[in-house]
Amino acid sequence: MNSLLNKLKKKQSTDTTENGHSISDSDKIVFMPSASKDYSRQSQNNQVNGHIERFEVRKQPHLAHSLDILLADASALAFFIQFLESQDKLNLIKFWMHVEGFKASMNTIADDANVAALNSAIVDARNIYNKYIEEESTGSISVPKRIRQKIFEEIVEVNPIEKSVLSSCFDDAQDFIRQMFEHRYFSEFQNSVYYKKHELEVLSQGCSLYDILCVQSLMLIFVEFMETNREDSNMLQFLIACDSFENDIQTKEDNEALEDAMAIYDKYFSMQATSPIEIGAPLRVELESDICTEDGRPKENAFHTCKRICINRLQDKYLRKFVASESYLRYILDLRTSIENTVRIFSNLEIS
């Protein structure tokens, strides 16, 4: 991100004048949430070197930039499954999916269900245990002993088994697997050719500004494409800083989170801001109260409205032109070529 911020700063320094006149505070424009029409159904025809593509302009993100989005997106999940299979860890996601299916079936069983229905669910739970939790199983996910013992006691030793206990018996094991996904496999997936395939599948259909913000290489191209003035440059820098703040706030102590929020506020929204984004007095007061709360911890969504203003502004001003540009199509074609080359290299290695 440092290279991107430096590029933005260089652009900003060349845009401090317009038509030979310096830009003063009085020249700032108040940007409020856009009420422009939704362009999600609009598309652009693009042609480079004989290639014709059609890209949608989207309002919502489609890239799986977080684990939660990935696990809820069947298309993205298919690529994650391929990645885990390449790591010989297919059992992890198979366990996750089997438990999700088990929980869904449990939700269809009434609280006062008859013994036969509950016994059938118990059989399913024990099958999951034998396949994934049992230490000697070939598909074992290797959960800690305390988790394995707790599950065993709940679905094997306890009789009769209550529906509420059965429904949650695999929660600790799922939490354990989720931590593995979060702290290791998801980040490795994002750096793999499988994520590039997901990215290509999504961006070949179209993109939103949210998607651009998730892909640094694409964001650099977007920065070059923008006819950047000072306000737009400030907005893009703020969106990057805001994304970092929202991703990290849960790991920060109250005073550290407050310092981070105040740093963003002071730089972009205060009356003495060094990279000003004018939002108007009422919203500034609301923002200050969301940052300086009674409990001393800023709200996680303190910058939500400001973020929406900036995204609407940049999206409405640039995105339709960007997805119709040669720059965007060349990015897609280069991404496709990169994937093909990577696959070819791995194929050659397997043959040799």
From TrEMBL:
GO biological process: intracellular protein localization
Domain of life: Eukaryota
Listed PROSITE patterns: RGS
Protein name per its UniProtKB record: RGS domain-containing protein
Matches recorded under InterPro entries: Cell_Polariz_PKAAnc, RGS, RGS_sf, RGS_subdomain_2
Source organism of the structure: Diploscapter pachys
Region Disordered, annotated ranges: 1-25
Domain RGS: residue ranges: 66-197, 208-332
Bias (Polar residues): 14-23
GO cellular component term of the entry, any: mitochondrion
